[in-house]
Records
---
Amino acid sequence: MNESLTESARDFIRAAAGGLVIGLPLLYTMEVWWHGFILPPWKVLLLLGVAYLIVIAFNAISGFRRERTFTELIVDSTAALGLGVVIAFVALLVLGQIDGSTSLRDAAGKVGLEAIPIAFGASLAATELGGDESGGRSGTGPFERVLVGAGGALLFALNLAPTEELVMLGIVASPGLLIVVVGATLLLTLALVFYADFGGRKRVKGDGPLEHPWSETLAAYAVSLGVALLLLWAFGRTDDASGQSVAGMTVMLAVMASVGAAIARLLVGGHDEAGQDK
């Protein structure tokens, strides 16, 4: 009983610490505070909903516990999101961004936005920083890696989406420059995931449509573009903007989103030779 409580407390502390580390940059970002007040409540709820689905997907692949029922999966994912909300509230309170004079709508908006990276960080820490007594992680398929990549894309792009610098980059970028940026982003993420040998994880080719470096890279980039466009729309960046400006902002934000997706895909790994033989 005591051992079980100790283990649960350790998991909780690990998840809370990881969530705080991942979410700390946004806790100090003024633009996020502003958008927490400016954004309509339904947009904040939509972003939280998307984040919750991504947390569920991440936990389903490699979350808090290796073997569990669907109910336990939902409980773990809800706990991660709830932990993100609590940590965001306490942190904003300590930083003086929430006090007795703050309206409920303002506080809820700020906490909702700040809870997103913290919740994902909590799931990430509980998985990647925890001990694995089995001696290794089972392989994940390309579809699962791309799905987890959406979480990394959301996490990284959320740091840049509220800033004015992104708007400036998107407006001034020429079509030729955007093509160069797309190509450079694809090459960078291809190299990071498949050729940089981070973690020494081996990947094998299969017959599926995503079982090849370029097809998985393109799929992950498409997801990153979708995440970037979602965030731009949610933060009102696409309102009254020209098509060229929206395309420019999306491509520029997708650089950050793609790097986040690549790192997330690296963390969950891939099929290794031993796993394939099994």
---
Amino acid sequence: MAGGFDVRDRVIWVTGSSRGIGRGVAEHLVGAGASVVVHGRDAERVGEVAGALGDAAFPLAADLRDEEAIAAGIEAIAARFGRLDGLVANVGGAAHGPLATMEVERFRRQLDLNLTGAFVAARAAHPQLAAARGAVVLISATAATNPTPEFGAYGAAKAAVEHLARSLAAEWGPDVRVNAVSPGLVRTEGSLRSVFRGSEELAARAGRTTAVGRVGEPSDIAYACQYLLSDAAAYVSGAVLVVDGGPTEGPTQRILRALED
């Protein structure tokens, strides 16, 4: 029976879905019965992922910085499916560095990658989403509300993403619902390599700092996206859903622990 958390027969574009969290979201949505537009800049990799997902996946290789390419991609989606019901704007990335010495251009690239890319995708998809009375999910990060030294540019960009979600929700409702998902640390091929230095033991150790006792998996983010794309979230718009495993201490606990040390 349709309704609830059901996304069967819906067409959903997941940006940056050739790897990492985006790929996990795409795989999950296909498994839930949706048709998914697999997107990335590397045409070969996009094709491989879409091929692995079968007939329910449609490959779209385009750079979000190229508005003409994105417009052509939206036309291709319309030609293939005749509709677009949802968008998961997942493209993003973190470049660390101290703000005191960070080049302005490096800071600007973080805004373009995380914020402008989300806006470009959402704006391009808006006409089809409005026609379908669809939904948008922007992928943020807990860095948006938790200052992390040397990741200030990334955190600022993700904070702007959350504001963008609320602004789009206010402007585009009631035709289009817009929300954000804010992941904590998620275990992907990239994070295992760059954050955990290839060590499963370090990943497990990091997981013990969360209330649920583990780091996240792409499927955890995918379930949150499915909820926000589905009719179960019909009365949810302009919200930020934090999916980070839960904190085990707050500012007071950190201060007390420092005093004990």
---
Amino acid sequence: MRTGYSLAIHGGAGALPRVPFTAAREDAYRHSLMQALAAGQRLLESGGCALDAVEAAVTALEDDPLFNAGRGAVLSADGTAELDAAIMDGCDLRAGAVAGIRHLRNPVQLARRILEDSAHVFLIGEGAERFAVQCGLGLVSNDSLITPDRLQQYQALKEQLPAARGGSATQVLDLDEPPLGTVGAVARDHQGRLAAATSTGGTAGKRSGRVGDSPVIGAGTYADNQTCAVSATGHGEWFLRTVQAFDIAARLRYGGYRLEAAVAEAIMQRLPALGADGGLIAVDHRGDIAIGHNTPIMFRASVRHGEAARADIY
């Protein structure tokens, strides 16, 4: 078993963009990943808990307009940003989750307040935002969450949308965008406590009200000190159907798997067999980190106590 802390983050997984990244754009993503990683690492270095570390890392990613979470999230079919997030404490399985948030810059912080200050686990929409006000979290306009790049993307998206008649469902569109679906973090602290957090703007052009796997405990986010902490990104509907984050933990608990084997089997065998793309990051109770993806790109970074931090894209 490793001593010390372990931390991993991700910024989404997907296909190669049709227009390759420039060196400057790659550097920008790597720099942002390392900045978010450092936000969590500083807390772990000073003896802070895993829950604080994943919240800090995901908050940094939500604040970075390069990623599809918080400010810079993709837009739904009605041209608004709708945000989802979850956070989970592996010590006692406490969790907080939110969905359909339109007026909060950092939904992961609201998820944390639900974990700490609510008898519930999952709040949505206006009810969640009223709770945010009660907790002292300031609301913002939806427009303030929309960046010029996402607005331009939305304009291109509208040209591809089928004529909406009677609220017909929209389709996932082939847009030339970075493969960013979700951001997340998993951590083990010096005391062996595990935590996970995930945040997303969902799928570009999604039907208003659609919720993917990210805020669903056991699907996109899970943590249990006895097994592992997981944050997923990819085809949210399939990660929901397979309860993917809990599936990794169950492989450890009931199947006797080591973390790397559990992640590899899920990502490289089970999900592709269903036609699902994506990836996940995980850290187990030993402090081992496993990162898997069946897509050409996954934005990710990781660090362990006493080791150098690294960020990768391809």
---
Amino acid sequence: MHDAPGRLVLLGHPLGHTLSPAMQNAALVAAGITLRYEPLDIPRSVLDETIAGLRRQRAAGNVTTPHKVALANACDRLTETAKKVGAVNTFWTAIDGALVGDNTDVGGFDAAVDALLGSHRPRERVAILGAGGAAAAVLHAIERWEGAEVSLYSRTQRRAEELLDRFAVKSTIARDAERAVEEATLVVNATPVGLKDDTVPVSVHALAKDAAVLDLAYRVNETVFVKDARARGHRAQDGLTMLVEQGALAFERWFNTAPDRDAMWNAIRALR
């Protein structure tokens, strides 16, 4: 249990691209809550000091790249989901003063897959590009998918091995991104590639004919990866659905009530 937050923040570095303040502040206004959601762009060197101050203020909030794992290590308690993923994107201060961490990216990913495909399909062959906190959330979600198989590509072999060892999913490690996606029915970009520029995590020419694309990165006018995939006839979606849903689930953790999702989406669309 916890009281209403004394402060509401987003921790990350850099935060120039984030749409979270717009959607969360719209949800706060719709709910009649007078708090404001503040972005705190801070490097790792001052994260511990910042967390100590937020504890004193009985704060709650979100965490994004690159602080999700560090925040998990700083929390006094973690939900089962956060423990499994090993990363925190949502936190709050409990009545006893403990800092509690959760991971709503898992629920956000489920919602994004539903929006893209209608639902995940039996025996889905999933290519995951990346081996960070976002990839861990994706793998935790996929653990519940009947007969799913994963092909994972990371630039660091050891990191890929350590990640896959944590999840009960039939999986292989691909030598390169092209091999990871060649037989996939669902391709998930769980890297920041394409977030700031027009680079792509893999050429769309490498995709199987029936592959769908879910790019967890997002930009105001969509990523080039999504645009290129859609132009070649693939179902493709960026990370906005995941962003909104993980944010809505976080709002529920902070205030024990569901936010106005329409207000959140309207705020996002106003920026596109």
